[in-house]
Design goal:
This protein has 266 residues and is an all-alpha fold. Helices cover 74% and strands 0% of the residues.
């Protein structure tokens, strides 16, 4: 077969085999003895959505068609994005260091560890959060085509998280205090993302800086699909994918540049 002649096919197969082992292992370790398993990831956005709706629903409902229900769905959508980002990148950050003993015994491709964390969160999202997001989309749009459109901004989100995950996991090998600084960084990302507030309330002079956050166009695109029943603005999709491609490229280049020094520090 033509595929078997491709020089990189063996590498892809090896990565796939390793991911098929590491991803279930990550999920089993994370939720061992848990009653709800991966569905715990859905509990946080549901609780936070309820709190945001109670506190801010009346204030911001006018920006969502004068509907508290619309505000609730908007907050839920934003929370899914920010929670996926925080969980995937934070877990990727320490993925190489916590597997240092294994890497000292067996030669394995180093990127597979942060990638396995990203993949585990993708699986968790598909099984736990995505079905509810699909239900919300169908309730608001009554059109299954918009369900498939959700894959576009989610793909951009995966690109962003993968690039940042590779960068953080490499940097953490050298700077073990990075985890504390990243807690502050994730808070900044959360507060500058229109999760519980509409982006329209941000002053016009600050709006350009708001869109430096790669999650903003992704959240806006998901809301346009799931709440408005419209295809997301081309500018939002382009910003989301462009940010994802740039961040992924920089993350890969940095990881590749410094990975030769990892084993001396693990």
């Amino acid at each position: 077969m033509m595929w078997e002649k491709l020089p990189f096919s063996n590498d892809i197969e090896r990565y796939w085999q390793l991911l098929s082992v590491l991803v279930p292992q990550n999920l089993n370790t994370r939720y061992r003895g848990s009653f709800l398993g991966v569905y715990w990831s859905l509990l946080n956005p549901i609780i936070m959505t309820t709190l945001y709706t109670v506190i801010f629903g009346t204030t911001f409902a006018s920006y969502f068609g004068d509907s508290i229900i619309n505000y609730m769905f908007a907050a839920f959508t934003g929370l899914l994005v920010i929670n996926f980002y925080n969980s995937a990148t934070t877990q990727a950050l320490s993925s190489i260091v916590i597997n240092g003993d294994l890497l000292n015994k067996i030669k394995l491709p180093l990127p597979v560890f942060p990638l396995s964390m990203i993949a585990a969160n993708i699986f968790q999202f598909i099984v736990g959060s995505l079905p509810l997001l699909i239900i919300v989309t169908l309730i608001k749009t009554h059109n299954i085509l918009f369900v498939f459109s959700l894959l576009l901004p989610f793909s951009a989100l995966v690109l962003v998280c993968t690039g940042i995950g590779l960068f953080l996991s490499a940097l953490f090998v050298f700077f073990r205090d990075l985890g504390y600084f990243y807690e502050i960084a994730t808070f900044i990302v959360w507060i500058t993302s229109p999760v519980f507030y509409p982006s329209e309330i941000v002053p016009a002079r600050v709006q350009p800086f708001l869109y430096l956050n790669p999650l903003v166009p992704i959240i806006e695109s998901l809301r346009q699909i799931s709440l408005d029943g419209t295809f997301p603005e081309f500018s939002h999709l382009m910003k989301g994918f462009l940010s994802g491609i740039v961040i992924l490229t920089l993350g890969c280049l940095f990881f590749r540049k410094v990975q030769s020094s990892f084993m001396d520090l693990l």
